[in-house]
Amino acid sequence: LPPAEAEALVRALQGSELRDIGGQGWLRQHEYVEKLNMHGILSASAGQEQLLTELLVTHAKIPVLIGELISVEIWKHKIFPVLCRLEDFKPRSTFPIYVVLHHEASIINLLETVFFYKEVCESAEDSILDLIDYCHRKLILLAAGSTKAQAADPVPPQELQKQAEMMEFEISLKALSVLRFITDQVDSLPLSALTRMLNTHNLPCLLVELVEHCPWSCWEAGKLKKFENGTWHVVPPEDHVKMTKLDGQVWLALLNLLLSPECQHKYRFDGFNKSQLLKLRAFLTDVLIDQLPNLVEMQRFLSYLAVTEPAPPKKDLILEQVPVIRDHILKKNSGKWEAIAKHQVKHAFSLTEEELKLQARRWAQTYSLDMMEALAPDKPRCRVCGAEAAKRCSRCRNEWYCTR
Questions:
Q1: Are residues 310 and 331 in the same domain?
Q2: How many domains does the chain contain in total?
Q3: Potential cystine with 247: which of 16, 106, 202, 243 (Cβ 3.0-4.6 Å)?
Q4: Average pLDDT of the segment spanning 225-230
Q5: What's the mean pLDDT in 120-147?
Q6: Same domain for 123 and 158?
Q7: InterPro entries from the entry (predicted)?
């Protein structure tokens, strides 16, 4: 995006009411988010994401994005199930609902791109507590294996529910990355944020669960598969012990939360927490440490923890802040879920043929083929031999070939 257009899109971002989700004004807002998301990914791959970061910080839009993220999460868990049960919910096109389901993924992806920077984390201000809680909820689902899609009949609304479950897994993985970036800034976080991560949510023990169960890795038909760059890949035997980016995110978050002096003063190293953390020693192999040398410090810390009784945390008087965005939305809309769902069936998810065509044209401009190819993590492969391909079928525009 040209700098002026990027700034205009950032300035246009604003919070949405729950009942407006899926409406025309909200869809325009999603379009802005999607363009900024794609702009952020392309800029990051070229090492030029500073402009987007500065715009979001200057115009104080990080709290707005966090608010939108939580609004859609609540919509998905409170209103979407009611919507699917309504008898008059028989949309000719499920396109607008797919957009709503994708909105949460777009925002968390945008936050993942920019939260690498300290100033972005600081600009979140009090809303960082809501973001920490959001990431915690996603990590619990991940650790419990509740995000894996179940088989469903390919008929709306069952197909929509299946789509929502599939996306939940990818969103949870993005939330893991965002949380790791937050832990990079423990020295500049508010005291309440640190207390919430360490003692309210006990994130170190939750991260131990992720190391143990590794939800992005599974065995299928005798082959190891790992989830990376949006798809499951079969891992060749020689790469079975290779650390993935997701493995690295968990270990880096643990390093930040356990080895920072500030965290060690606040964390409760009681009997349960100590026994959970010592499980990590079994995973700290020489092969793993060769790939992430900082883990030597973790190994030393765990050896020390095994033979000593750490001092109890200081009993300081702390006036703890609490997250307000989610609580505010829930209180404001409590008992209104069915009414909101009926309003949205009537005004957002029963579009006329002309309205659908108009919306489709708008999205065709946003999601151009050239843009999609630039965002793709892998080069196209030949349909026949699997080699890297440079020629695309002129008829269907989908299949690729290495030669004529």
A1: no
A2: 2
A3: 243
A4: 87
A5: 89
A6: yes
A7: ZMYND10 (IPR052298)
Strands (E), 169-301: 217-220, 223-228, 231-234
Kindly report the average pLDDT of the chain as a whole number.
Answer: 85
Pair of tokens at residue 347: 């005004």
324-332: long-range contacts, CB 8 A cutoff, minimum separation 24: 324/126, 324/130, 325/66, 325/67, 325/70, 325/127, 325/130, 326/70, 326/74, 326/130, 326/133, 326/134, 329/18, 329/70, 329/71, 329/74, 330/74, 332/18
b vs e for 18-51, b when ≥16 Cβ sit within 10 Å of the residue's Cβ? bbbbbbeebbebbbbbbbbbbbbbbbbeeeebeb
Mean of the pLDDT values across residues 317-342? Answer: 87
Q: What is the mean pLDDT of residues 218-237?
A: 88
340/90: higher pLDDT: 340
Q: Yes or no: say if 283 and 323 are a contact pair by the CB < 8 Å rule.
A: no
- Rounded-to-integer distance, Cα 90 and Cα 84, Å: 9
Helix 3-12 to helix 50-58 angle, to the nearest 10 degrees? 40
314, 261 contact by CB (below 8 A): no
Q: Is residue 375 part of a domain?
A: no
> Number of H helices and number of E strands within the chain?
20, 5
Distance CA 366, CA 282 (A): 48
Three-state SS for 90? Answer: coil
**Cα three-residue angle 72-77-80, rounded to 5 degrees:** 80
Matching residue, tokens 């964390």? 267
Greater model confidence, 152 or 359: 359
Which residue range is the domain that position 330 belongs to?
A: 1-187+322-367
List, in sequence order, every beta strand (DSSP E) within 51-145.
Answer: none
Cα separation of 52 and 39, whole Å? 8
The backbone torsions φ and ψ at residue 388, rounded to the nearest 5 degrees and listed phi first, read -60, 135
Contact 318, 191 (CB under 8 A): yes
Q: Give the pair of three-digit tokens for residue 148.
A: 């894996």
Judge if 311 and 174 occupy the same domain.
no
Rg (CA), the chain: 23
1, 10 Cβ separation under 8 angstroms: no
On the 0-12 / 13-18 / 19+ scale of CB atoms within 10 A, 233 is: middle
225 and 174, same structural domain? no
Residue 376 lies in a domain: no
